[in-house]
Write a structure and sequence with these properties.
By secondary structure, the chain is α/β, with parallel strands linked by helices. Helix content is 40%, strand content 8%.
């Protein structure tokens, strides 16, 4: 008897589609994939997934009972049962492929592959064996929740993470440093999401919650990026656009190409200039005690750039802020051309935008930046230049700049 595909495919709510469900499982028993069975029967893939695995007791389906598979007294299960594991062991002895076993059990091949590799036991001669009853015992031992967190179980690991969070290291930087410091101790290895959960998930309490303020954003939840504000060009005279910037600046192979911008203080009355070298992400901060008028910006930039060696003064990329109105005079004094980004295109100075985000850990928004002196700015720059960066394969900007200068010389 052939099955008639349901013509009306509108959402059915909680209506139980008896004939559709029976036909879906009949097709699955014949080895048809779940996606193909859903297409033939005329149901959504999520509906098929709920029929096959049951609804999870959380979210919007909280409390909903699993849909019972016809002919299966125990009902469907998200997890492999002991009978499934016995079937896997029998078919492995018969040299059946993983995909064949998966089709027979109505599971994904990756589920079967992961089960075999996760629960196999070593045998004689370096060979591995899959023993179904031992695999079931291991699965039962792993299933109970909640589990103790890795950070909470190790005082040494917790102390290392808290110490580096206090130094404003990001969780990802801490993770990489753990692997470098303890390469042969897997108990000291975690992923960065483990650190975030130890900070944010209520009830875990593995790390002090006040350390979350040391993170770059200082927020508990991540926010999506907002659309950039489009503005008109402010300096139409003698502007060199980023499209005319030397090609060597784009591939970051040659040191000496910089990106610059301002971070603005309380009520837009104070500012600090930021310079980032593109190849090494080395940071230099520009002291602006008298404000950010074009003349003040010109003089402060000249003073900062003049301390750099000649091979590190190849170009400077800036946005079209009015503070750079005297860019030609700056270029004449330093022999360093200035290139301007397109309006509303902060990604063209990505390294500088990222660094400005890092600097907000030291200079929060709404702070009067005029109270910071030259020595304090130099200390912040030195701390940033000694922090490992993912984009540098976890080298520090100072280390990378030293290598680049040694290679160039």
């Amino acid at each position: 008897m052939t099955f008639e595909i349901r013509k009306d495919r509108k959402p059915q709510g909680r209506r139980i589609l008896v004939r559709e469900r029976e036909e879906y499982f009949r097709l699955m028993d014949q080895g048809v994939s779940s996606a193909e069975a859903c297409r033939i029967v005329g149901i959504g893939r999520r509906t098929g997934m709920r029929w096959r695995n049951g609804w999870r007791p959380s979210g919007r389906h909280k409390g909903s009972p699993p849909v019972t598979r016809p002919g299966t007294p125990e009902g469907p299960s998200r997890y492999l049962r002991e009978a499934d594991r016995i079937h896997i062991a029998d078919r492995l002895r018969e040299k059946a492929s993983i995909r064949t076993i998966a089709a027979e059990l109505g599971r994904s091949p990756s589920t079967i592959s992961r089960e075999i590799h996760r629960n196999r036991t070593p045998g004689r001669g370096g060979r591995w064996h899959y023993r179904p009853h031992a695999a079931q015992s291991r699965a039962d031992a792993r299933r109970p929740r909640p589990k103790p967190g890795k950070i909470g179980q190790s005082p040494e690991l917790r102390e290392f993470i808290q110490q580096h969070l206090s130094r404003r290291w990001s969780p990802e930087q801490i993770v990489q440093q753990l692997r470098r410091n303890f390469p042969d101790r897997p108990e000291m290895h975690v992923v960065h999401e483990t650190i975030y959960q130890a900070l944010y998930v209520q009830g875990r309490g593995e790390l002090r919650r006040e350390l979350a303020k040391a993170l770059r954003t200082g927020r508990v939840m991540r926010r999506p990026h907002r659309q950039s504000y489009k503005r008109q060009p402010r300096m139409a005279k003698d502007m060199v656009m980023i499209s005319e910037r030397p090609a060597e600046a784009a591939d970051r192979a040659v040191p000496g190409h910089w990106e610059g911008d301002l971070i603005i203080g309380k009520a837009h009355k104070s500012a600090i200039g930021t310079l980032v070298e593109r190849s090494s992400r080395f940071v230099a901060l520009v002291h602006l005690p008298d404000g950010r008028q074009p003349a003040h910006m010109r003089d402060a930039l000249i003073q900062t750039v003049s301390t750099l060696p000649a091979q590190l003064r190849r170009s400077l990329t800036w946005d079209q802020g009015s503070e750079m109105h005297l860019h030609s005079e700056f270029s004449t004094a330093t022999d360093m051309p200035v290139c301007f980004c397109d309006p509303g295109s902060p990604w063209q100075r990505g390294s500088n935008e990222n660094t400005n985000g890092l600097l907000r850990q030291y200079f929060p928004k709404g702070t009067d930046l005029a109270r910071y002196g030259r020595e304090e700015l130099d200390a912040v720059a030195a701390e940033l230049n000694s922090r490992p960066r993912k984009t540098l394969d976890w080298e520090t900007p100072a280390e990378r700049l030293t290598k680049l200068l040694a290679t160039a010389s």
